[in-house]
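Design request, tokens follow.
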């Protein structure tokens, strides 16, 4: 009995990672960019040449130079240093929000798909109600109600992403729950949680990973948008969206204030999209051939 059980578990887990071998060069470029940006955020304390909050009235709106690589803002603060420290907040918000949404949303979708019946109907109707609101508008309303703190911004972004993960997990579970290895597990007396988390979860994990990478880009954009309209972390805390907003007021005479944080947001969003597209193509190469 244990030998048969082990063989079915190996079959379920064998579908988790093989697609990584089929990742294209663009996907690895995206992974490299994300790793570099995360590393820069982690080591910002050592990489930043200046204190991000240090003001110098004699260096206001200075253009890029050898002393200040990306120039200075209207308070004389070094933009390069603020970008590095801003990456900490922007990436922390995005990573924690999507991690929470992935776990909660996938759990809801897996339970709804596996149990079916009334549980499935209730869960999906609730998710449909949340999906009826645009993610940015819903996030804006939640932050405005709860207050613009780090924790509240993470909760708001996570809440807007949960339905997407619930739906993708439910759809994946529906395609797996009647497979032979699941039926075999039931016939051997495996419990529902064991089948769901040790057999079905590894099989649907690649699809969830694709959704996670794509929604990371959405989370970064949402955080930047909230900061741009004044619902981000309070100054002088540096965030990329807040830096774009500060630079917008001086766009005509000091365009570099908004240029560099905008490029940082663009680079990170593009990297996550490259990763998501590459993972999607690796899961189903027919999608790549069709395109």
């Amino acid at each position: 009995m244990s030998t048969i059980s082990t063989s079915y578990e190996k079959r379920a887990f064998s579908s988790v990672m093989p697609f990584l071998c089929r990742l294209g060069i663009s996907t690895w470029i995206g992974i490299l960019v994300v790793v570099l940006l995360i590393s820069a955020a982690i080591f910002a304390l050592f990489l930043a040449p200046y204190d991000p909050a240090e003001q110098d009235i004699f260096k206001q709106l200075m253009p890029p130079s050898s002393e200040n690589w990306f120039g200075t803002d209207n308070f004389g603060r070094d933009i390069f240093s603020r970008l590095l420290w801003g990456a900490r907040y922007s990436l922390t918000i995005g990573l924690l929000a999507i991690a929470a949404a992935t776990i909660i949303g996938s759990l809801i979708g897996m339970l709804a798909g596996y149990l079916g019946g009334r549980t499935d109907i209730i869960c999906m109707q609730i998710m449909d109600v949340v999906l009826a609101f645009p993610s940015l508008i819903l996030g804006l309303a939640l932050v405005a109600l709860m207050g613009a703190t780090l924790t509240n911004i993470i909760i708001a972004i996570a809440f807007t992403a949960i339905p997407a993960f619930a739906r993708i997990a439910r759809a994946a579970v529906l395609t797996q729950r009647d497979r032979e290895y699941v039926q075999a597990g039931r016939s051997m007396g495996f419990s529902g949680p064991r089948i769901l988390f040790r057999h079905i979860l590894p099989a649907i994990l690649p699809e969830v990973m694709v959704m996670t990478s794509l929604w990371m880009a959405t989370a970064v954009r949402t955080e930047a948008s909230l900061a741009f309209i004044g619902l981000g972390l309070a100054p002088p805390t540096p965030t990329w969206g807040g830096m774009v907003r500060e630079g917008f007021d001086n766009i005509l005479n000091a365009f570099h204030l908004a240029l560099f944080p905008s490029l940082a947001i663009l680079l990170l969003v593009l990297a996550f999209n490259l990763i998501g597209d590459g993972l999607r193509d690796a899961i189903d190469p027919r999608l790549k051939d069709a395109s």
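Comment from the thread starter after seeing the answer: thanks! The radius of gyration is 22 Å.
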